[in-house]
C-alpha cells in the first residue's frame, strides 16, 4: 500500500512537471522528467534489444525531444504521464523499425495512432473509462506468472504473437488466449470482447 | 446499423503495444475510427503499457547528458512550436476525437484518416482491377512485413469466391455490408479470419460494399467466382 501511495504521489509530481514544460517551457521541470524517464525509456528499448545501448540512447533522446515539443498538447484527463510517454516510446520504436525495414511504406506511427484515445462519451465518464494507476498495478500484481510473461513479451519486448509463440515454445492459440485471459482478469476491456 | 464485430483483446492489445505488422495495425486503426467502445478499450490498454514500462528496472545511461539534449532541442528549427499551432487548428476543424467523438458515421463514405495517405484522391481515383464480374480490387501497399493491404469493392449482391486462408486475413468494412456463413457484417465491423475459416462473402443488395483487407498469404480458392 505504501508503494501504491508513493506511485500516486510521484504521478502527481510528474504531471506538474509536464504541465510546466508545456505551459512555460520550464527547463528545471524538464530536467526532472529527464531524470525519471530516460532510464525507463532505455530499459524499454533494451527489453526489445538487450545490449543495444546505442539504440536505447537514441530512442530515449528521441522521445525526450518529443516530450519537449509536444508537452503543450498533453491532456491529463486523457492519459497519465506514464501512458503518454509509453505511447511516444511505442511510436518511436515503430518508426525506427519501419526506417530499417525491408519494405518501404509511407505509413508512420502517427497515421496509426493519432487521436485514437477516447475518454468516453462525455468528460464525466473519463473516471470510469480510464482506470486508476493503482487498479492497474494491483491487477498486474495478481496475474498468474504465465499471463504476465506473455504481456511482458508483447508490450515490453515488442514481440508479435508469432514470435512470442516461438520464444515461449507455446502454440499461437495459447499465447492469444493467455493475453485475452489477462485482459479479462484485469477488467481492461468493456463490451464483451 | 450498430457495429457488432470488434477486434478481440489479443488484436487490440497487439495494436496498443505496437507489435502488429503495419497493415494489420491499419485495419484496427480504421475500426477504432468507427468505434468509440474500442477507442476506450485502447485507452486502457495503453494505460497498461504505461504501467508495464514503469515496472521495468531503470537503466540509467552513463553517456546521455541533459545539456547535450537541451542543445539539440535549442538547435531545432522553429517548427516545433508551429506543430502545436497546427494541432490546435486541427482541433478547431472538428477532426479530433475530443470534438467529434464518432468521426465517421457508419452510413457515411468518409475515408478513415489513417488510410488517407494511401487513398489521396478518394476511392474513385484508385487503380481498380477486375478480379471477377462482381469484384474489383486495388492494392494500397505492401506493409513492413510484406502483407498485402488492399481494397475490395463488391457490387451489390455480388459474391466473393469461396475461400479459406493460409494465414490471418483481416477485413474492415468501409462502406456497405456483406454476409457470409458466420453472419452479417456492417460498415465499421472488423473481421479476423484464419486457417480454420472457409467462407463465401456476399455483398448486400442495397449498396456496393468496400472493404479494406490485409492478407498474409494468398487466399485459397475452394469454389468458383460468383
Ligand atoms: Zn469496436
Ligand atoms: Zn476471407
UniProtKB/TrEMBL annotation, chain A:
SUPFAM superfamilies xref list: Sigma2 domain of RNA polymerase sigma factors, Sigma3 and sigma4 domains of RNA polymerase sigma factors
Transcription regulation listed as a keyword: yes
Annotated InterPro entries: EH_dom, RNA_pol_sigma-70-like, RNA_pol_sigma-70_dom, RNA_pol_sigma70_r2, RNA_pol_sigma70_r4_t2, RNA_pol_sigma_r2, RNA_pol_sigma_r3/r4-like, WH-like_DNA-bd_sf
Keyword Transcription applies: yes
Cross-referenced Pfam families: Sigma70_r2, Sigma70_r4_2
Highest taxon in the source lineage: Bacteria
Domain EH residues, every copy: 26-88
Xref: CDD domains: Sigma70_r4 (cd06171)
Gene3D superfamilies: 1.10.1740.10, Winged helix-like DNA-binding domain superfamily/Winged helix DNA-binding domain
Transmembrane segments: none
Keywords in alphabetical order: Sigma factor, Transcription, Transcription regulation
Family: Belongs to the sigma-70 factor family. ECF subfamily.
Protein known as: Sigma-70 family RNA polymerase sigma factor
Amino acid at each position: 500500500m505504501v508503494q501504491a501511495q508513493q506511485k500516486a504521489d510521484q504521478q502527481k509530481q510528474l504531471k506538474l512537471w509536464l504541465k510546466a514544460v508545456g505551459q512555460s517551457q520550464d527547463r528545471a521541470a524538464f530536467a526532472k522528467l529527464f531524470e525519471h524517464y530516460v532510464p525507463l525509456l532505455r530499459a524499454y528499448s533494451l527489453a526489445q534489444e538487450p545490449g543495444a545501448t546505442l539504440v536505447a540512447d537514441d530512442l530515449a533522446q528521441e522521445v525526450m525531444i518529443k516530450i519537449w515539443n509536444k508537452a503543450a498538447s498533453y491532456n491529463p484527463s486523457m492519459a497519465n504521464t506514464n501512458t503518454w510517454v509509453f505511447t511516444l516510446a511505442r511510436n518511436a520504436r515503430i518508426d525506427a523499425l519501419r526506417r530499417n525495414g525491408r519494405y518501404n511504406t509511407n505509413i508512420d506511427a502517427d497515421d496509426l495512432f493519432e487521436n485514437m484515445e477516447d475518454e468516453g462519451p462525455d468528460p464525466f465518464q473519463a473516471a470510469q473509462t480510464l482506470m486508476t494507476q493503482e487498479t492497474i498495478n494491483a491487477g498486474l500484481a495478481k496475474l498468474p506468472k504465465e499471463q504476465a510473461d506473455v504481456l511482458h513479451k508483447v508490450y515490453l519486448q515488442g514481440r508479435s504473437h508469432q514470435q512470442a509463440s516461438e520464444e515461449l515454445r507455446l502454440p499461437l492459440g495459447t499465447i492469444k488466449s493467455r493475453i485475452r485471459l489477462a485482459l479479462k482478469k484485469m477488467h481492461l476491456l468493456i463490451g464483451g470482447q | 446499423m450498430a457495429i457488432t464485430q470488434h477486434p478481440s483483446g489479443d488484436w487490440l492489445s497487439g495494436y496498443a503495444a505496437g507489435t502488429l505488422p503495419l497493415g494489420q495495425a491499419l485495419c484496427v486503426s480504421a475500426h477504432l475510427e468507427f468505434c468509440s467502445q474500442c477507442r476506450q478499450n485502447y485507452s486502457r490498454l495503453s494505460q497498461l503499457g504505461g504501467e508495464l514500462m514503469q515496472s521495468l528496472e531503470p537503466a540509467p545511461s552513463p553517456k546521455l547528458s541533459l545539456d547535450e539534449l537541451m542543445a539539440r532541442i535549442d538547435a531545432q528549427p522553429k517548427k516545433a512550436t508551429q506543430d502545436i499551432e497546427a494541432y490546435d487548428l486541427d482541433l478547431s476543424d472538428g477532426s479530433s476525437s475530443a470534438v467529434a467523438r464518432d468521426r465517421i458515421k457508419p452510413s457515411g463514405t468518409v475515408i478513415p484518416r489513417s488510410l488517407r495517405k494511401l487513398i489521396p484522391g478518394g476511392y474513385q481515383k484508385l487503380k481498380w482491377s477486375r478480379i471477377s464480374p462482381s469484384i474489383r480490387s486495388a492494392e494500397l501497399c505492401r506493409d513492413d512485413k510484406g502483407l498485402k493491404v488492399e481494397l475490395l469493392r463488391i457490387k451489390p449482391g455480388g459474391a466473393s469466391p469461396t475461400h479459406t486462408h493460409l494465414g490471418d486475413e483481416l477485413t474492415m468494412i468501409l462502406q456497405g455490408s456483406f454476409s457470409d456463413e458466420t453472419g452479417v457484417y456492417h460498415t465499421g465491423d472488423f473481421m479476423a479470419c484464419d486457417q480454420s475459416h472457409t467462407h463465401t462473402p456476399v455483398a448486400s443488395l442495397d449498396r456496393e460494399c468496400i472493404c479494406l483487407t490485409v492478407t498474409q498469404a494468398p487466399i485459397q480458392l475452394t469454389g468458383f467466382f460468383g
